[in-house]
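Notes from the 1:1 (GR / supervisor)

We went over the backlog. Supervisor wanted to see one worked example end to end before approving the batch request, so GR pasted a single chain during the call. The sequence is below; no edits were made to it. Supervisor asked that the structure be written out right there so they could see what the output format looks like.
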Amino acid sequence: MTNCRLCPRGCMVDRVAGSKGRCGQTADLRLARAALHKWEEPCISGVRGSGTVFFSGCQLGCIYCQNEPIAHGSIGRAVTNERLCDIFFELQQQGANNINLVTPDHYVPQIVKAIERAKILGFSLPFVYNTGSYVTVETLRMLDGLIDIYLPDMKYLNETHAREYSAAKDYPMVAKQAIAEMYRQVGSNVFSDVAGEPEPMLIRGMIVRHLLLPGALMDAKAIVRYLYETYADNIYISLLNQYTPGPKVRTHAVLGGKVKKKNYDALVDYAISLGITNAFIQEGEAAAESFIPDFNYDGV
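Structure output shown during the call:
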């Protein structure tokens, strides 16, 4: 991190010396929340909840970000690697089904140390890596053998959208390579019965998420087709309709509106027409407030 290249931005700053990278963070490990969360996919959250750890900052910087307060680094409390390890055990004691690392890419070296320490101390819950997929293969390889479940986004195949909405024209190529590396590490999905849960839980594998954006149905269909043609039903695809325009895009010509129900239904129908059976969908109009917790340093 003295010459940071953890993400494709490759800003090369010395984060250890206190400089901030494109992620908006120095080498100080900063968290916004660590608590049980029951709004992930059913095989991740279950009844008891997923032990989510929200990291401050993000290298992608999407203009419509649904977690803007933490992604832009305005919220975050510095903790040590040892404290992060302790948090894993505290969430386990609260009944978490897994440890869910949210937007973690720019802290991989610290996370590796915390997970290794936890495993030495006997920690046994699965680790979930919850990412926007704008991360290098080299960074992901540092996690090989430590992550049990990958929960990546695939935001765009359309380079114009990637450039305009995330200032990352290379996102489609980067995400394809990143997701391929994740799949190499964990392989096809494995489920297991877990005490206290009525349905089997995912203990190893991958769920790829796509949040349908206004005016982006064609790109969404291309993403679904690419994922199915590449991975078939060896992974789950999660189609999200919970997009809500934030303050920065409420006057945007496209992103200022909500996703039309008929467009989301068309995306689901398209996935079915391809033959996809391993998928999650959201029924009705998903309220963003249900999925975005308060970032109040709970559990940090």
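Supervisor's comment: The chain has a mean pLDDT of 94.
Batch request approved.
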